[in-house]
Amino acid sequence: MDYTLLFVQTLNGLQLGLLLFLVASGLTLVFGILDFVNLAHGSIYMIGAFICASLTLLIGNFLWAVVIALPLTGALGFAIEKLVARRLYEKDHLDHVLGTFGLILVLETLAHLLWGPAGITVPLPLWLDGQIELFEGAVIPSYRLLIIGTGLAVAAGLVWLVNYTRLGMLIRAGASNRTMVSALGIDIQTLFALVFALGAMMAGLAGMLITPITTASLGMGGQIIITAFVVIIIGGIGSMKGAFVAALIVGMINTMGRSFLDQGFELFMSEDAAETAAPAVSAMAIYILMAIILAFRPQGLFPPRVR
Amino acid sequence: MLKLSVVGWVTFVGMVALAILPPVFLWTGHAFYLDLASRLVILAIAAVSLNLILGYGGMVSFGHAAFIGLGAYAVGIPAHHATWGGFEAVASYNGLFHLLLAVGISALFALITGAISLRTKGVYFIMITMAFSQMAFFLFQSLEVYNGDDGLTIDIRSELPMINLDDPLQLYLLSYVSLVGAMILVKIIVNSRFGMVLQGAKGNNERMVTLGYNTYFYRLTAYVISGAMCGYAGFLLGNFTTFISPDMMHWTRSGELMFMVILGGASTAFGAVLGSSTFVLIEEFLSSLTTFWHLPFGLMLIGVVLFIRGGLMGLFKAGGK
């Protein structure tokens, strides 16, 4: 076993897990408070990436582009809530799924119209484009460390926001009893819109952070949204802690599966068979995990107490 | 004279039109419309099967496209091996074998995934069914033997006794008869004691459980029947397109199937057929106008969800009163 590779892959898994958390936290927040299933969350992730990518090319600085793109993505979330999502809250989950499925088609086509069918590649600033040697042989791109740092910071910020601020108190109160909160004179509609915008910003941030590594592309939203749903289902829909733990688990399994599963399989089957089976199993691994967890705990790992 | 309600008339006229128009299109030299009608009728079978559990059973399956894909691969894989060798156990052009395989594999997949999924409720059920279909999607995507993402092209269609699937009209008529059969089957199931329990569990599960019904078993049975029926639609679709790819199982395909059911009107016999017909025709029309047809299509979807209660059949019902 190559321990340096294992270490580097652990960091990669952590990075993927934190990006997934950024997307999943918005989903789980919106579901926990608004009881709303938002398939279009992945499209917001994609549009955040595109906005940031064009801004980077326009002003030539990736970090400033992120700073400007964040409120824009938040505003997009706010608008979506006002125009479409709000009208769906009262309907059932099936209508949520269909309505936001329509929203996906609309948003993806708009992105196609605005940015064209090809993706946008984003250059990193020079000082982020380097590599850092953590110890002998373990070289990791410094940008990946930045993603890990940002992800952890946002997770901590979110815990602080929900548990220790007045806004967070209102959010939690709104989650347990929205009628009561609005009877106490809180503008619950605006509160909901803010939560939605917050979720959109986090999804957008994830999209922006991944763009320099991959590219901003039309298909990226559809890929991440399903994984993000797997994350919140494993974690327990509505639970922030569950989303965090499950995101890290899924990130690790995905990364480790891709790099080590074939070696693991070779222990008990032929090299050829392992090379065929490993990609198939690693692609399905998170779904298998989800099925196993749901078979034993139908509410996920950390079902929220409210519900 | 037939005594029919408005809904009854819509169903009657619709089904007669589907029986008569496509052959007429073919004889007047518009073979393209026969193609369109074939796709429409095959998707309608899938929508009817989904309607059984979604409309009548209240089980929102977001993974029904998996069964279509499994049914189609049950045609593609044996035909592939029959042409290129290998995997002697399944290599065959025999249509009846393909058919049994399609229905059998789909039923088995439904039994296993349903047994797990039905332990959950609400959003969890929606998402776990989707996850299982994604599992099937990724499995076939990573199977290099069957060209992964690029899919399988079959050169020889399933060989059935007396029916030649290479003839577009015979394929259409088989699909049409199958659709009528599927609709009658669903009707019989829904009106049986079994169907009553199923609908009762949709309305109030606790009450049915208290009355002593093992609703889990009823739901699972309905789920397996629905999956097998959808696999049959996949068998037809594979023979129709002669091109089978993992894309058939993608979660967006499942979303489209759900939309067909809701658009037409869930838990009505003809709703699923009306929904899939409308869906396929609008899709065809819009995509002939612009490459960006997803935009108006998505807006329409949102509009239907927001403003049309009970789908198109609901409109007819309201109009008939």
Describe this entry's structure for a reader.
The complex is a heterodimer of chains A (307) and B (321). Chain A is mostly helical and 307 residues long. Chain A has a domain at 8-217. Chain A is built from eleven helices and two strands. A two-stranded antiparallel ribbon of chain A has the order 1-2. In chain A, strand 1 and strand 2 form a beta hairpin. The longest helix of chain A is centred in the first third of the chain and has 32 residues, at 3-34. Chain B is mainly alpha-helical. Chain B has one domain (6-320): ABC transporter involved in vitamin B12 uptake, BtuC (Orthogonal Bundle). Chain B is built from 13 helices and two strands, in the order H-H-H-H-H-E-H-H-H-H-E-H-H-H-H. In chain B, helix 1 packs antiparallel against helix 2 and helix 7 (193-203) packs across helix 9 (215-241). Classes of the chains: A mainly alpha (307), B mainly alpha (321).
What brief labels describe this structure?
heterodimer, A: 11 helices, 76% helix, B: 321 residues, mainly alpha, ABC transporter involved in vitamin B12 uptake, BtuC, 13 helices
Question: How are the SSEs placed, and which strands pair?
Answer:
The complex is a heterodimer of chains A (about 300) and B (about 325).
Chain A: H1 3-34, H2 41-59, H3 62-88, H4 93-115, E1 131-135, E2 138-141, H5 142-164, H6 166-176, H7 178-183, H8 188-210, H9 220-235, H10 240-266, H11 271-296
Antiparallel strand pairs in A: 1-2
Helix pairs in contact in A: 1-5, 1-8, 1-9, 1-10, 2-3, 2-4, 2-8, 2-9, 3-8, 5-6, 6-8, 9-10, 9-11, 10-11
Chain B: H1 6-27, H2 31-56, H3 65-84, H4 95-117, H5 122-142, E1 152-153, H6 168-191, H7 193-203, H8 205-210, H9 215-241, E2 243-244, H10 251-264, H11 271-289, H12 294-307, H13 311-320
Antiparallel strand pairs in B: 1-2
Helix pairs in contact in B: 1-2, 1-6, 2-6, 2-9, 2-10, 2-11, 3-4, 3-5, 3-9, 4-9, 6-7, 6-9, 7-9, 10-11, 10-13
